[in-house]
Amino acid sequence: MTARDRRLYGWCLAALVTNMGIVVTGAVVRLTGSGLGCSTWPHCTAGSFTPHAAMGIHSFVEFGNRLLTFVLIAVAIGALVRCYRIRVKAQLLALSWINLVSIALQAVIGGISVRVGLNPFVVALHLLLSVAIILVNVKMIWLAGSHSSEPVDGLTMGLVRATVAMMCAVMWLGTIVTGSGPNTGDSGSARTGFNIETVARLHSILVWITVALTIACLVIATTRQLAMMRRWSIILVAVEIYQAIIGYSQYFAHLNPWLVIWHMVGVSLTAAAIGALWCSVRPTPSPVLASAQTPVRGKPVGRDETSR
Fold first, then answer.
1. Those residues with Cβ within 8 angstroms of residue 218's Cβ, 6 or more apart along the chain or in another chain
2. Residue of 237, 272, 280 whose CA lies nearest to 130
3. pLDDT digit string (tens) for 180-212?
4. Which chain regions cross the lipid bilayer (predicted)?
5. Which stretches in the chain have pLDDT values below 50?
6. Are residues 181 and 195 in contact, defined by beta-carbon separation less than 8 angstroms?
7. Residue 32 Ramachandran class (φ > 0 left, ψ -120 to 50 alpha, else beta)
8. Which pLDDT does position 308 carry in this prediction?
């Protein structure tokens, strides 16, 4: 990797770290009851973008989290500018734009969540978009760095995709559990109205299905000697074990807020790990496609005979 490439890689890595970080700081805002510390958006309070002492500590906690968005935007712009300077491939450039636009959209969704009194379904969308951005960041790192991916058959690729899809479902249902519990983000916030024990059990069932799929990925990667897939399957299993320990501790501790924060650390780690597992493999080109891409003697690649 050249020095010029290392700088782009650094920007992409910074994008991942900052987007993972804001997931955790967002949890701190909610769990300290500071979600409506700034009562409106884009202002913090009527007529002022910044909080003042009379508003109390919650306003500064919420405002501090809002300021972090500008850090994310600055990093996203840095990565995008670097992409243009070294003229990267179209896919990486497109992902850099998606990263920047998604962060701006994330700020808007955050503002909407404040204006609707921290409606749990809007707050859930806020988190899920962060997870999607983390997946984009992992792919950016993969393309900007020297990471490789292994060609796999349709069954293996389907298993990895199923694991990713199930993990996304687990995270979505996790937001429903949180939205049904006591950690509202503000004492006056609405709840989903669902029975928390019921949704927690459903969440647990999906978690164990996802764990089973991850173990299946590990078994296939080991038997077929897919080193990259095996490495990230092991890492993902380790993160899932961590999440299971924290998750069950939360349940028996009646959703202790500080345990929830550690669970959100696990969410960001899980999103990064599942993204890396997804990037570690690629579908093997079909024989028909491969033959179509093979040049014929005296004939340019991809040229149709009928076009003569």
1. 230, 233, 234, 237
2. 272
3. 776 655 555 666 778 888 888 898 899 999 999
4. 12-32, 67-85, 92-112, 118-138, 159-180, 200-221, 233-253, 259-279
5. 289-290, 296-308
6. no
7. alpha
8. 35
- Structure pTM? 0.86
**Which residues does residue 227 pair with via DSSP β-bridges, in sequence order?**
none
Q: Are 137 and 90 in contact (CB under 8 A)?
A: no
pLDDT (0 to 100) of residue 30: 75
CA distance 217 to 221: 6
| Both tokens assigned to 283 | 């579908």
Residue 181 is given by DSSP the state: S
Q: Tell which residue, 166, 157, 165, 134, has the closest CA to residue 267.
A: 134
User: Which of 90, 98, 106 has the alpha carbon at shortest distance from 25?
Assistant: 106
Q: How many CA atoms lie within 13 A of 66 on its CB side?
A: 26
Residue 207 burial (10 A CB sphere; 0-12, 13-18, 19+): buried
Q: Kindly report the backbone phi and psi dihedral angles of residue 89, in degrees, each rounded to the nearest multiple of 5, phi listed first.
A: -65, 160
